[in-house]
Amino acid sequence: HFHSIFPPASFMSYYSAISPFHVTSCLSSSGEIVVNEVSFVRKCIGSDSSHGDLWGKLICTNFKVSFITHDALPMQRFQVANRLLGEHDVPLACVEQVVTVNDAKGKQKVLCSNQKLKFNPTELILYCKDFRIIRFRFDEAGPQSAKKVCLAIAHYSQPADPQLLFGFEYVGKQYYVSLVNGVDPGGGLQMPLFDRPSEWDREIKRTGAAEWRVCSINEGYVVSPSLPEYFVVPVSLADQDLKQYLCFFTAHRIPLWCWNHPNGSALVRMASISDPLQQRKLDQRICSAITKSHPQRSDVLKSDLDKNLPNIQDIQAAFVKVRQICVIEPFEESEEKWLSSMESSRWLEYVRAFLKHSAEVVYLLEGKHVSVILQEEEDRDLSCVVSSLVQLMLDPHFRSLTGFQSLVQKEWVMAGHRFLDRCNHLKKNDKEESPLFQLFLDCVWQIINQYPAAFEFTETYLTVLSDSMWIPVFSTFLFNCPQQRTENSMVRSSHTHTNCGCIQLRQRTSMIQLRTEKALRFPPVWDWSQQFTPKDQALFNNPMYVGKGATCVQNGAVKSFRRTKKNYSSTLRGMPSSLRNILMDGHDSLTLTRRNSLVSRLKPDFSQIREVVESPTERFFRDWVSRPADLQGMLIPQLLPSHLALWRLYFLRWVPEASIPKGGPVTAYHKLSQLADEVEKLQSQLRQYKGATSASTTTSTPSAPPSDHSRMYFKAGSTHESSSTPEYLSSSFPFSPVGNMCRRSILGTPLSKFLNGAKIWLSTETLANEAL
């Protein structure tokens, strides 16, 4: 536990008197070393005064910025207890910008790696990628010590090489595993990682894709480093044919199977064909093979994502604007100005664009029974988002916790999404940085927000998953492609630390695999025990979930929801008739212009629908909305701009002004969790009673199971007090904004209307459409 590696207060004075080299030697057994530290530091809590500020020691290690204090936070709120991080810790990979300030000289400087600092800082401001802003004051600290710790934070938060990321230290110390004939036997995760043929075979069988097979031509990454070693292709395409085709595709990324609809339609993704002379010929051969894999030999349609969706630079620009609006700039006194600024960032517009395009693909697969190819230049960014959303809308398996994790593993990790570059862990090229994964999680949250009972996991899970991107120990987010992930797992490292604490050298040895060789095992993020206790992991569980096998009570009998293949494949799912504006806003000014858009042909005015001949698309969505919602069937989100909301837990959790004490969605979550826990206990008592009666072994009253067996974080109480809303609950739960957002004070009540349900999108045309 990294937050416990530092010595107690009684030893602090001793450690402050010895050199960094000696401190390093004391801590190196855990993989984390102290690089530099400074005492008598004040962590700012209030915006305008020092009242309530904390005093302690600021420490920079090779993993995180840590603040050690024995002072208690004022107005302490509950916070997720991460096993890798303490209450005041920030991973270095999460630090976006390091700013030093000198009050006397009126200077401030953004520190980069290996830069000099010509003045002694009186203040340090850390701008974090998870939207926190943290301030430290050095009024009572030694000026040289303060300067050194600032330089150390700037240096270690911008590593020059992937192997300087802390994951190699962490893994090297704790996760060596033996290879069996050069093969990693794997861990104990109860979910597929799609790094073996057997896991792809199971997915083929699960989806009924009988005319598809596992291909191994990329074994050893001899074909493409960005493709997995094993992937799925049509049965009619031989390995020899694929080897001939691959040189014509960008980065040798030949078409990859994603998923099969029960009606036989397939979802496929592929890179662009780099040779224009071969374009028509290859298109015909690929489409012919996909057509043969369909039971009805249906057509194949191609969707060009590069033409139809915003690019990664646009998405990054929108994300930066949202961060500026939410956490860097103070909220304005004018409510409307803040909301219009949020609208002008275009972030929600882009979220809507991806949801909308995914819904169009859903229509093709479900409504027209045709296979769809998602084409992107390199098939590693936009296609990850769209393919995942399509499967999430169509397949309830991916709405379970294990299913969702396997979806991300399949469509992002193994498909070669550039997490290292898109997260900009090395800060080498800002043009490569783009929050594609955060955009995807926001899209998922929008669907959860509209269908809360359809998902096994909560928005807390999505937020924690996003935060895990900045903890550089997980293989999931550390690398750009499967080959890079595998290569670095085969590295044998020796480490030399200099006594200055500012340079860390690594030497790579031979990568030849021997029968007795050991490999580094980078834990995947899905091993949540690395970060949270079983109790805290219960925050991931949705008490409203109605999934396959989920229990319910009808007329006093305990029953289970079961999905059959028949009702999953053939029945159109719907939602309440009051939501008839879904996808029918063709004249909405905020809709992205897209070539061949299916949705753009739909009419916004229902009074005109009977006056024109319905298109198949219109009929499909009209039939769909006319039926009651089936949470185990197809789900399509509402897509009018006013139907999309700002993901407040993610974007505003650190903003004190946006926090609602004992309010927000968490209050409903608290009550529902207690109800679900009580139902679980009653069901367990019934089972014990029936078992005891049938066996005639005892007449005593069965007792409830231990509370730690419950899936719920909040347990059912026996008294009125225990069932009331806890004092620590707020709309930021389970995060605490106290001490994590320090900027100048805010006047007025800028969020009052928004927190009471005001819409982000306020254009006249939008309001007119909503009135329908």
UniProtKB/TrEMBL annotation:
<dbReference type="Pfam" id="PF12578">
    <property type="entry name" value="3-PAP"/>
</dbReference>
<dbReference type="InterPro" id="IPR030573">
    <property type="entry name" value="MTMR10_PTP"/>
</dbReference>
<dbReference type="InterPro" id="IPR010569">
    <property type="entry name" value="Myotubularin-like_Pase_dom"/>
</dbReference>
<dbReference type="GO" id="GO:0016020">
    <property type="term" value="C:membrane"/>
</dbReference>
<dbReference type="InterPro" id="IPR029021">
    <property type="entry name" value="Prot-tyrosine_phosphatase-like"/>
</dbReference>
<dbReference type="InterPro" id="IPR011993">
    <property type="entry name" value="PH-like_dom_sf"/>
</dbReference>
<feature type="compositionally biased region" description="Low complexity">
    <location>
        <begin position="692"/>
        <end position="702"/>
    </location>
</feature>
<feature type="domain" description="Myotubularin phosphatase">
    <location>
        <begin position="194"/>
        <end position="651"/>
    </location>
</feature>
<dbReference type="InterPro" id="IPR022587">
    <property type="entry name" value="MTMR12-like_C"/>
</dbReference>
<dbReference type="GO" id="GO:0005737">
    <property type="term" value="C:cytoplasm"/>
</dbReference>
<protein>
    <submittedName>
        <fullName>Myotubularin related protein 10</fullName>
    </submittedName>
</protein>
<feature type="region of interest" description="Disordered">
    <location>
        <begin position="687"/>
        <end position="727"/>
    </location>
</feature>
<comment type="similarity">
    <text>Belongs to the protein-tyrosine phosphatase family. Non-receptor class myotubularin subfamily.</text>
</comment>
<dbReference type="Pfam" id="PF06602">
    <property type="entry name" value="Myotub-related"/>
</dbReference>
<dbReference type="InterPro" id="IPR030564">
    <property type="entry name" value="Myotubularin"/>
</dbReference>
<dbReference type="GO" id="GO:0046856">
    <property type="term" value="P:phosphatidylinositol dephosphorylation"/>
</dbReference>
